[in-house]
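[Discussion] Sanity-checking designs against the backbone

I'm trying to build intuition for which residues belong where. Below is a structure token string of 86 positions. I'd appreciate it if someone posts a full sequence so I can compare it with mine line by line.
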């Protein structure tokens, strides 16, 4: 599993694709959907408290790179919720 994890990390660093990070999570981690559930929890909290608060709290909940990725995914998700469908 170590080689698979390293290979997926290298691909992620090269292409910066959230799908690759998700694939790594599913294939390597013991809790495959934990990142998605954390994102949903962070999204709920952000909608309740605001993006400013989320950007202050996320670095305290996650390590540096994970916090940065989570905040980027959170902003992307918020933008998709706010943009009109038509």
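Best answer:
Here's mine. Compare freely.
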């Amino acid at each position: 599993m170590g080689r698979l994890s390293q290979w997926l990390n290298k691909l992620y660093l090269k292409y910066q694709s959230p799908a690759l990070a998700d694939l790594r999570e599913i294939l390597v981690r013991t809790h495959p959907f934990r990142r998605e559930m954390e994102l949903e929890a962070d999204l709920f909290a952000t909608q309740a408290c605001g993006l400013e608060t989320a950007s202050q709290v996320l670095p305290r909940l996650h390590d540096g790179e994970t916090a940065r990725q989570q905040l980027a995914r959170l902003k992307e998700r918020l933008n998709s919720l706010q943009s009109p469908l038509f």
